[in-house]
Specification:
This protein has about 500 residues and is of the alpha+beta class. The protein folds into two domains: about 110 residues, Glutaredoxin (3-Layer(aba) Sandwich), CATH 3.40.30.10; about 250 residues, Rossmann fold (3-Layer(aba) Sandwich), CATH 3.40.50. The chain is built from ten helices and 22 strands. It has an eight-stranded mixed beta sheet with strand order 8-7-9-10-22-21-18-15, with helices on one face. Helix 2 runs parallel beside helix 5. It is elongated and about 125 Å long.
Length: about 500
């Protein structure tokens, strides 16, 4: 007997089932296609946005950022001012290989490249930078090497017009070679100092000269011993001055090409005719940096009084109580700096004037000079007048002792006519010469001296720069902090990734 069955009311007929299955598969494919296209378009537009953002940043705001604590990558105001003041082209040719002999990246090259990018940012018009790789372009390398008379490797040439100056790559980085069992460590980057000096040299029209007075026990600019002045002389040379010595006892005249006269700690009195030569030098708008030590009578004290400077016959001291024992400190700290071109850009630097006497400004309206006290000590120092005392020093105003703050340095210049600076004699007097000795000079003292030198020479764009010293910072963690970081890194972060993965998998199943 034949049994007839009736299909459910909503059941499709056999002929329609393949069609519906194809429609369902097509719908699923279309949805997947749209999702894939949507993801691709999102990635595409994200990349376009990133490229556009980088283009905008590079085109309209290419200034580099320096996030270091010590502003290691920031150019000094001195360099920025010089670059912005350029009025003629300066060509920079870098003959430094990007890799060393072992194939590793050259630290010198990377530092030079980074620094020159910043130079280019502040002077895009007149600064032209060219990197020469002799391995890739030997013809061009030989052409430039012959033109500027340099070797093909490890030198950076700065040229403008007919003048050129080169900087050796060995002068860019300063290494510490004290440990023979470790690789030499970079302790200072002097590229900015060298490059700015080189640019100044090639754009400056006149070759300037500095003379060190000799013959009275002054420090010798050629002496590299601890008590010598060779370090100061080297820095003057790097700032493109010719440094020479002058002895008025041998040749009684101050050369006409003397742009700066340095009197560095005379130990004996100057002769009367020498004083007359110095006075004539000042009358013809001479510039002098004079350093006078305590307990020394040179004759310059009376001459300087005519220009508004009073040099004290004393010694600047402070008391230090260490473990109940009173000690005397003759290293005077200059913490209060005047608002003057020499000191205004030293920031909060503390100058160290070892074994110093006071130098005060005398405000005399009859004088045609303006005296500015540049550096002062804290209140804790006093001026001791009993220099030959064998017992304990004590502050005693009845004997002429003076309480702090005390002036340690004075700058002399002609008085302004209205608000306009006038030409004339410029003098800086300090109450010590030891602060510029080879073994005592530091970055702050050197900046003070170089700022004064450039103030004498009317080179405000060269005021204030010193080598950059990289600093290492260590993160100090206690045991509890180390355990917390370990738990987060080893436990919490992998667990969070696993939970996110499970959640995504469950959502996709639905």
């Amino acid at each position: 007997m034949e049994v007839l069955t009736e299909d459910p009311p909503n059941s499709p007929s056999p002929s329609k089932q393949p069609t519906q299955r194809r429609e369902r598969e097509y719908s699923q494919f279309r949805n997947r296609f749209y999702m894939a296209m949507n993801a691709l378009l999102q990635i595409f537009f994200l990349l376009v946005a990133l490229v556009f953002a980088n283009f905008i940043a590079y085109k309209w705001y290419p200034k580099p950022f320096d996030l270091t604590r010590t502003n290691y990558y920031e150019l000094s105001d001195k360099t920025k001012q010089l670059l912005k003041s350029l009025s003629k082209p300066v060509h920079v040719i870098v003959f430094v290989q990007p890799h060393n002999a072992e194939g590793d990246s050259s630290q010198v090259y990377s530092e030079v490249e980074r620094l020159l990018k910043q130079y280019k940012y502040y002077q895009p018009k007149y600064l032209e930078i060219e990197y020469i790789d002799p391995d890739r372009n030997l013809t061009r390398a030989r052409e430039l090497a012959e033109k500027y008379n340099v070797q093909l490797a490890n030198v950076i040439v700065f040229a403008s017009g007919e003048r050129s100056k080169y900087v050796q790559s060995s002068d860019v980085l300063e290494y510490d070679h004290t440990n023979p069992f470790q690789q030499s460590k970079v302790v200072a980057f002097k590229g900015e100092q060298q490059f700015t000096s080189a640019i100044q040299n090639v754009v400056e029209a006149k070759q300037l000269k500095a003379y060190f007075l000799q013959g009275h026990g002054e420090r010798d600019p050629d002496n590299y011993d601890e008590k010598g002045a060779a370090t100061v002389a080297q820095y003057l040379k790097r700032d493109n001055l010719v440094v020479e010595r002058i002895n008025l006892l041998e040749k009684p005249e101050i050369p006409r090409d003397c742009d700066l006269l340095l009197i560095d700690g005379p130990k004996q009195p100057l002769k009367d005719f020498e004083m007359k030569l110095l006075e004539d030098f000042f009358k013809r708008q001479g510039r002098a940096f004079i350093m006078l030590d305590p307990d020394t009578r040179t004759g310059l004290e009376d001459l300087l009084r005519k220009y508004g400077v009073a040099v004290g016959n004393n010694l600047v001291l402070s008391k230090i109580n260490m473990l109940g024992q009173v000690m005397y400190n003759s290293n005077a700290f200059g913490t209060a700096l005047a608002s003057h071109p020499i000191t205004s850009k030293l920031g909060h630097s503390a100058l160290s004037f070892h074994y110093a006497r006071t130098v005060d400004a005398v405000q005399d309206p009859t004088l045609g000079y303006q005296a500015t006290e540049l550096v002062k000590t804290p209140d804790s120092f006093w001026a001791e007048t009993a220099l030959n005392r064998k017992t304990r020093y004590e502050f005693n105003p009845d004997t002429g002792d003076r309480a702090g703050p005390l002036s340690l340095a004075v700058a002399i210049e002609p008085k302004k006519v209205g608000n306009v600076n006038t030409e004339g004699t410029r003098i800086v007097v300090t109450g010590t010469s030891t602060f510029l000795e080879n073994d005592k000079i530091d970055a702050a003292n050197m900046d003070f001296f170089l700022n004064a030198a450039n103030w004498f020479l009317k080179r405000p764009e060269l005021i204030g720069i010193s080598p950059k010293r990289p600093q290492e910072f260590m993160l100090g963690l206690n045991d509890a902090q180390i355990r917390t970081i370990s738990l987060v890194a080893i436990g919490a972060m992998p667990l969070a990734a696993a939970v996110i993965g499970v959640v995504v998998w469950l959502r996709r199943r639905k």
